[in-house]
Design goal:
Chain lengths: 472, 318
């Protein structure tokens, strides 16, 4: 009996050790970071095959007329060179679908609810029509209940679903930069335009020295024409503005943490690059935390040992920011400033961190709704009246991106993915609620204004937010 | 901060975390000691314990019409803390008995792998129960334990080392539980029945011991321990998460194996060892490497001493 027991335990040893190593090994790669992202697109490319097989059928019908309502993606692509441009929205008819792909499950839901509200608001104000076409909006979820946040599989599924539905002309999304890395290549091949209200990871659109060598080309495989745009400024500006803000607040020594995702790591790197330029000494990091850890006391201890007077965390609420904040506050006290990016500028973060969230400094790659002026201020009033609640930071960007989409469909004048994509990317001097702006050739917005808000009495004090500028 | 203080602080953090791991590990090792089953669902039972405690801690204050429990008078807060502990222990004890009845009893005579797979299945079911119940986000567990700084406020020592009443509670609470368990197993009739069942199930049955009842009792105790660990984890770490059971369970299982599975003191020592090593790794190396360090250590222990640090105690196991 005794001997048997030993033997049975010994059998567990390799199993256990194997499990442990496996889990440890998986940890850093759990989220598709920029390094792992390239593998994904090629993997998920296969499901697009069905779209290709339907192409001959569509192509067999008399060469897709410019306004043909049933043009399949590939047929449309093939037809575009011969399609004569039609001005105005006069030839639009039938149904045009706009889909969005955002995390609609988990704690991002609070934020994305207000974005979807804003989409619907923009659409309703256009009476769901552009020219003679009826616009149908579909709200896709790229998160799963089990993960509590976006997953690469779900995002790829959404992108393929959009590609395979010939009525889909615009893809609004994504919310998370890591998710965009998955869907851009899928949609790019199908010439489907993407407008993100919230992606701030710079590598999606441009090459940043010292981060990832193969960006952004890796997201546009085979040299497919750029289909991706975003209405928010990206993180090289936000990270730099955060570092400058830290310095302006009187900090001298910074400790930098991140959650090891594309977005969080990216912004931490830019904070790190800018800090020495503005006279802020980096005493530790960028160091990745383990988002599944049960506590961060030893890490907080290490930070205290370095004498840092500001801790910057590049990451999102859903990667255990609440617990991290509790342990940092308990160990560092209230004299050390805690700062984070827009990924934690949501009510869910304050709920998770509790008291520890008080006096947290958060940056945001734009202007909070109450600070918008002109048309923006009018929109803010309408929103509060219609939904009887405060819009979260990205709601105004959601509204703007839907407006851009409708404007582009109008200008393209026909139900054609290539024409609509080109119309979106060539958006110039667009006057919306964010002001007057254009898309740069990279797909980025020409806007660069940032803002910072502080948590006061369990709320983001966005009414007293400050305007931030990145150092030149 | 001087080097001695630094070392002391890291040790204290490690010991406090280790105590929580040890609490969960006790449940693993108890069940293994009796029926030689690694109850992989134990980590999830622990998670349900935290959720049950959280429910009490948020629901009771709402009866008084206040949003945050710590605004209530001291004695009521103490009662809420105690109530959440009891609720978690009762919930988890009953849950564990139901799990044994549904998922393990029928498989008792089956090959060893069958109940193991069944246990993994149960753990998935319980994770999803947690998800349905409280959602997928990391939740804030209200901070109700007194935050008295022991070194400075009680002992008057001027040091930067942070050691609160909360840390002390987490460290010592496992000791009475362990002692109680030991006395129960060694000195009561039911405990004797458990030991007899562990030694030879058929012979014990022939002596008139109700095997099903004895094993159910073992699960009842194991569940109560997991519930206690869950409540204490919530009160101590101030966070609750539907996925916490996986990491917590894995560390505890590792602690049980490292200390010598089936051995109550081994579980405690194993838990402490893991807590301290993890804290040192977090502090000295990089937080990302902590798991590699912990499991690397486990491999070393198993290679050189396959029965764990203290070894399996066949005469005194339970």
């Amino acid at each position: 009996m005794n001997g048997q027991r030993r033997a049975s335990l010994a059998r567990f040893a390799p199993l256990l050790a194997g499990t442990g190593l496996f889990i440890a090994a998986c940890q850093p790669a759990a989220q598709p970071s920029p390094t792992t992202a390239p593998a994904k697109p090629t993997e998920v490319a296969k499901p697009t095959a069905p779209a290709a097989t339907t192409a001959p059928a569509a192509a067999a019908s008399p060469v897709a007329k410019p306004a043909s309502p049933v043009a399949s993606p590939s047929a449309a692509a093939a037809a575009s060179p011969v399609a004569s441009p039609v001005a105005g929205g006069g030839n639009l008819s039938g149904t045009i679908k706009i889909v969005s792909s955002l995390p609609r499950t988990g704690s991002s839901k609070g934020q994305t609810d207000t974005i979807v509200n804003a989409y619907k608001m923009a659409l309703a104000e256009a009476n769901n029509r552009v020219g003679g076409a009826t616009i149908v909006y579909e709200d896709l979820d790229d998160a799963t209940a089990a993960a509590g946040k976006w997953t690469a599989d779900k995002e790829a599924e959404n992108a393929n679903r959009a590609v395979n539905d010939p009525d889909v002309m615009v893809y609004l999304g994504t919310f998370n930069s890591g998710a965009a890395a998955v869907s851009i290549p899928i949609l790019c091949r199908a010439n489907l335009t993407m407008i993100s209200p919230a992606n701030t990871y710079p590598g999606l659109t441009k090459k940043i020295e010292g981060v990832e060598a193969n960006e952004p080309d890796v997201y546009y495989p085979g040299g497919c024409k750029r289909n991706y745009t975003r209405v928010v400024p990206s993180d090289e500006i936000q990270g730099a503005a955060a570092a400058k803000w830290s310095k302006d607040l009187g900090a001298t020594k910074a400790y930098i943490l991140d959650d090891s995702e594309a977005y969080g790591r990216g912004i931490a790197v830019f904070y790190n690059i800018t800090a020495p330029k503005v006279g802020l000494q980096v005493v530790g990091g960028p160091e990745s935390i383990d988002p599944k850890a049960s506590d961060y006391r030893a890490l907080a201890q290490k930070i205290r040992g370095t004498g840092a007077d500001v801790v910057f965390f590049g990451g999102i609420t859903q990667n255990n920011a609440g617990k991290l904040w509790q342990d940092l506050r308990a160990t560092l006290g209230t004299s050390v400033r805690l700062m984070g990016p827009d990924g934690i500028q949501e009510q869910a973060f304050i709920d998770a961190a509790g008291q520890a969230a008080e006096n947290t400094y958060t940056t945001f790659g734009g202007v909070p709704a109450p600070k918008l002026t002109g048309r923006g201020a009018e929109w803010y009033g309408r929103y509060k009246q219609q939904y009887n609640s405060e819009p979260e930071p990205y709601a105004s960007y959601g509204y703007e991106s839907m407006k851009v989409a409708l404007d582009a469909i109008q200008r393209a004048g026909r139900k054609d993915r290539v024409a609509i994509r080109d119309a979106v990317t060539s958006t110039k001097d667009f006057t919306g609620i964010l002001g007057s702006w254009s898309f740069l050739p990279t797909g980025d917005t020409s806007l660069t204004t940032m803002s910072g808000s502080i948590v006061k009495s369990g709320k983001f004090d966005s009414a007293n937010s400050v305007t931030l500028q990145a150092p030149q | 901060m001087q080097i001695q203080e630094e070392v002391l602080q890291v040790l204290l953090i490690g010991i406090a975390n280790g105590a929580i791991i040890a609490l969960i590990a006790l449940g693993y090792t108890l069940v293994y000691g009796i029926i030689e089953l690694i109850n992989f669902a134990h980590g999830e039972v622990f998670m349900i314990g935290t959720m049950a405690a959280l429910t009490i801690v948020t629901w009771v204050p709402s009866l008084f019409g206040v949003k945050q429990a710590f605004t209530l008078p001291g004695p009521i807060v103490a009662l809420i803390v105690l109530g959440s502990l009891v609720a978690a222990m009762v919930t988890c004890a009953l849950l564990n008995v139901v799990v044994e009845r549904v998922a393990y009893r029928r498989l008792r005579a089956a090959p060893k792998l069958a109940p193991l797979i069944s246990a993994i299945g149960v753990s998935f079911v319980l994770v999803n129960v947690g998800l349905l119940w409280k959602g997928p986000s990391q939740l804030n567990f209200p901070d109700l334990l007194p935050q008295v700084d022991i070194f400075r406020d009680w002992l008057g020592i001027n040091t930067l080392v942070l050691f609160t009443f909360k840390d002390l509670l987490a460290i010592v609470i496992a000791v009475p539980l362990m002692l109680g368990l030991h006395l129960f197993v060694q000195h009561t009739r039911l405990g004797k029945a458990m030991r007899a069942t562990a030694q030879d199930r058929d012979a014990a049955s022939m002596m008139g011991i109700d095997i099903n009842l004895t094993i159910a009792l073992t699960f009842l105790l194991g569940g109560a321990l997991a519930g206690a660990a869950g409540a204490i984890n919530g009160l101590y770490n101030n966070s609750a998460w539907a996925f916490q059971g996986f990491r917590g369970g894995l560390y505890a299982f590792t602690a049980a194996v490292m200390g010598g599975i089936g051995n109550l003191r081994g579980a405690y020592i194993g838990g402490m060892a893991i807590g301290i090593v993890a804290a040192i790794s977090d502090r000295v190396i990089d937080a990302r490497w902590t798991q590699v360090v912990v499991f690397g250590l486990l491999i070393l222990v198993l290679i050189f001493k396959p029965t764990g640090i203290l070894g399996e105690e066949t005469t005194e196991r339970a």
